[in-house]
C-alpha cells in the first residue's frame, strides 16, 4: 500500500448542522468533497494516529463507496483499527453502543437520517466522540474551521476492502474488523429489558407491526422482535435496507409512514404499531386507533420506565429539547426529579447523560433514548413500550388516556414549511426577533402574550453557551409557539413552527389536536405571517 498526499483547497458549505454534515448525494460525490471533510474531521479531533474508530452507515446510496474512501484515509492518516459493520451497515444507536463497548476513540456515521436517499437525494456524515455521542459544538466548530483552511489530504492507494464478509483484514498498518452489525446491539437490549415478559406478551396473542421503512432497522428488528421475542413472522415490514429506501422518506411520522397509520386506524389494526427512520434512531409509536405524539411518548416512558429492569431504581432526571412539549416536565415534577431543557439535537444531551444527571431524553421529532447509549434509539423505545405494556397489561390507548387523566394533556403539533427561500425564512425569523421585546402584554389571535424570548442555553455541566436556538412565545393559560429553522435540510430552508397548549380539564382530553390548538395556530400565524409570506395555504408536513 502506498500513501499519497493530495493537494486540495477549501470547499464552501462544509459546516455541520443539527446532526453532522448533510448535502445532496451528488455534492458529497463531487471532487474532493468527502475527502476534504473526512480529513477535516481527523484534523479537528487532533489526528487519528494510533486511534480506533467505528465506521458504519444506514445503507443509503454511496454508503459503501464512502466507507472505502474513509478506510483508505484512516490508514493513510495512521489509524490503528477500524471496526466496520458488515456491508457498511450500522444503525446510529448501534454505532454509539459499539464506540462505548469497545472503548474506541469515536466513530464515523454515514447517514442523512430521515432524509430520502439516492443519487438525487441526500447523504450525510458525522463524527461521534469516545462517549458514543455526536460531537459537541466545540468539536464541530473545530472541524468546520479546518474545512475552511484545508490544503491537502492523505489517502492510501489500495484495493477495496471486502466488507461483505465478517472477519479481519489489514490495510497497510491498519486492522479492519468487519463485524455483525446486530449482535452487540441485540445483547444490550436483552440486558435492559425483560425479554421473558415481552415474549409472554407476544405469545398471548398480542400483535404488532414494525415498519422499518426499507431503512437500517430491518435486520435489527427482524432479529430482535421476530427471531428472539417471537413476534409473528411478517410483523416486521419493509425490512430490507434499500439504497433509496424504496423511494420514500424514511421518516417515521404520520405522513411518511402512512401505510402503517392507515393500518393502525383500520379495524384490522394489530395491538401495537411502530416505525423507525433511515438510521434507526427515531421511533413512531401507534396503538390501535391511537397515534402517540413523540412528546407524549417521552412522558409515558418517563412515568413507566421503572417497570423495565434497566430503570427499576428510577430516573436520575429527564431532559427534552426546548421545542418538545412540557408533558415530561409534569411527570418529572410529580416524581420530584430534575428536567432539563436543551437546544434541538442529540449532541446537547451528552453532557447530562455522561454526568449522570439525566437518564431519559427525548425530542418532539420522534427521538427518545436513555443513558444506555449516547444517541436516540428507535428500537430501544419500541422495546421499552413493549416492556411497559407487558407489565401493565393495558392497551396503548388506555395507557395514554390514564396518563392524561393523571398529568393533564399537552396538546401538541409541529407545522413544517419546507423548501422555503433561505432569505425569506431568515427574514421572517429576524422580523420576529426584532419584535420580541414588545410582545409581552400584547394579544395575538385573541390570546394574551405572557412572554417572548429567543432561547439561549448554558450547559449546566460544562458551562458552554449556545445562542439563537429558537424563538419562544408564551400565551396565557400555558400555551406556547416556538419558531426555528431546520438544521438538517439540504434544499432552501425549512421553517418549523411548534405549537402547544396544556389541558387539565378531564372533559377536554379527546379533542383533535389541530382543533384544540386552533387559537395558538392563529396566534402563531398573526405573529410570524409564515403562511402569507411564503404564499402557502398551510404547512407541508404536520406532525
Ligand atoms: C431535526 C429534528 C431534531 C433532530 C435532528 C436529527 O433537526 O428537529 O430534533 O435531533 O433532526 O435527527 P432540525 O434541525 O432539522 O430541526 V435525525 O434522526 O436526522 O439524526
Ligand atoms: Co435519524
UniProtKB/TrEMBL annotation:
Keywords attached to this entry: Isomerase, Magnesium, Metal-binding, Phosphoprotein
Known EC number: 5.4.2.2
Domain Alpha-D-phosphohexomutase alpha/beta/alpha residue range list: 14-153, 184-286, 295-407
Stretches for region Disordered: 1-22
Cofactor(s) the protein requires to work: Mg(2+)
GO MF entry, a single one: phosphoglucomutase activity
Short name of any one Pfam family annotated for the protein: PGM_PMM_II
Biological process according to GO: carbohydrate metabolic process
Keyword RNA-binding: no
Top-level taxonomic group: Bacteria
SUPFAM superfamilies: Phosphoglucomutase, C-terminal domain (SSF55957), Phosphoglucomutase, first 3 domains (SSF53738)
PROSITE patterns per record: PGM_PMM (PS00710)
Catalytic activity: alpha-D-glucose 1-phosphate = alpha-D-glucose 6-phosphate
Gene Ontology cellular-component annotations: cytosol
Name of the molecule in the record: phosphoglucomutase (alpha-D-glucose-1,6-bisphosphate-dependent)
Native organism: Roseisalinus antarcticus
Record gene name: pgm
Amino acid at each position: 500500500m502506498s500513501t499519497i498526499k493530495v493537494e486540495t483547497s477549501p470547499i464552501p458549505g462544509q459546516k455541520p448542522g443539527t446532526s453532522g454534515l448533510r448535502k445532496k448525494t451528488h455534492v458529497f460525490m463531487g471532487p474532493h468533497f468527502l475527502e476534504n471533510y473526512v480529513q477535516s474531521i481527523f484534523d479537528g479531533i487532533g489526528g487519528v494516529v494510533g486511534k480506533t474508530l467505528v465506521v458504519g452507515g444506514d445503507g443509503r446510496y454511496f454508503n459503501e463507496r464512502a466507507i472505502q474512501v474513509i478506510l483508505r484515509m484512516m490508514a493513510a492518516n495512521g489509524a490503528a483499527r477500524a471496526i466496520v459493520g458488515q456491508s457498511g451497515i450500522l444503525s446510529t444507536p448501534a454505532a454509539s453502543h459499539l464506540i462505548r463497548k469497545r472503548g474506541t476513540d469515536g466513530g464515523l456515521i454515514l447517514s442523512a437520517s430521515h432524509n430520502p436517499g439516492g443519487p438525487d437525494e441526500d447523504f450525510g456524515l458525522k463524527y461521534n466522540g469516545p462517549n458514543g455521542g455526536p460531537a459537541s459544538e466545540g468539536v464541530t466548530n473545530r472541524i468546520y474551521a479546518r474545512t475552511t483552511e484545508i490544503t491537502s489530504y492523505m489517502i492510501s492507494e489500495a484495493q477495496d476492502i471486502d466488507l461483505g464478509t465478517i472477519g479481519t483484514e489489514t490495510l497497510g498498518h491498519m486492522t479492519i474488523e468487519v463485524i455483525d452489525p446486530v449482535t452487540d446491539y441485540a445483547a444490550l437490549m436483552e440486558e435492559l429489558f425483560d425479554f421473558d415478559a415481552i415474549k409472554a406478551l407476544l405469545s398471548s396473542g398480542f400483535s404488532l407491526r414494525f415498519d422499518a421503512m426499507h431503512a437500517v432497522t430491518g435486520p435489527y428488528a427482524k432479529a430482535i422482535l421476530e427471531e428472539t421475542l417471537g413476534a409473528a413472522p411478517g410483523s416486521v415490514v419493509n425490512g430490507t435496507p434499500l439504497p433509496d429506501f424504496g423511494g420514500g422518506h424514511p421518516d417515521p411520522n404520520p405522513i411518511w409512514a402512512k401505510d402503517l397509520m392507515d393500518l393502525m386506524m383500520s379495524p384490522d389494526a394489530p395491538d401495537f404499531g411502530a416505525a423507525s427512520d433511515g438510521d434507526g434512531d427515531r421511533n413512531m409509536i401507534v396503538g390501535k386507533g391511537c397515534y402517540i405524539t413523540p412528546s407524549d411518548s417521552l412522558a409515558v416512558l418517563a412515568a413507566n420506565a421503572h417497570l423495565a429492569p434497566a430503570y427499576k431504581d428510577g430516573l436520575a432526571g429527564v431532559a427534552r429539547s426546548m421545542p418538545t412539549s412540557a408533558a415530561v416536565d409534569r411527570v418529572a415534577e410529580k416524581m420530584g426529579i430534575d428536567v432539563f431543557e436543551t437546544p434541538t439535537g442529540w449532541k446537547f444531551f451528552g453532557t447530562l447523560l455522561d454526568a449522570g444527571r439525566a437518564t431519559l431524553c427525548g425530542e418532539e421529532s420522534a427521538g427518545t433514548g436513555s443513558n444506555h447509549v449516547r444517541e436516540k434509539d428507535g428500537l430501544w423505545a419500541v422495546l421499552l413500550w413493549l416492556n411497559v405494556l407487558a407489565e401493565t397489561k393495558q392497551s396503548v390507548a388506555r395507557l395514554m388516556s390514564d396518563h392524561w387523566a393523571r398529568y393533564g394533556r399537552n396538546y401538541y403539533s409541529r407545522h413544517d414549511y419546507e423548501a422555503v427561500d433561505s432569505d425569506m425564512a431568515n427574514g421572517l425569523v429576524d422580523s420576529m426577533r426584532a419584535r420580541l421585546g414588545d410582545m409581552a402584554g400584547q394579544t395575538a389571535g385573541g390570546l394574551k402574550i405572557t412572554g417572548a424570548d429567543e432561547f439561549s442555553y448554558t450547559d449546566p455541566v460544562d458551562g458552554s453557551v449556545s445562542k439563537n436556538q429558537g424563538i419562544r412565545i408564551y400565551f396565557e393559560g400555558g400555551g406556547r409557539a416556538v419558531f426555528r429553522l431546520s438544521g438538517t435540510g439540504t434544499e432552501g430552508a425549512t421553517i418549523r413552527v411548534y405549537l402547544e397548549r396544556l389541558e387539565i380539564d378531564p372533559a377536554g382530553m379527546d379533542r383533535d389536536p389541530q382543533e384544540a390548538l386552533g387559537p395558538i395556530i392563529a396566534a402563531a400565524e398573526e405573529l410570524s405571517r409564515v403562511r402569507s409570506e411564503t404564499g402557502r395555504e398551510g404547512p407541508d408536513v404536520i406532525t
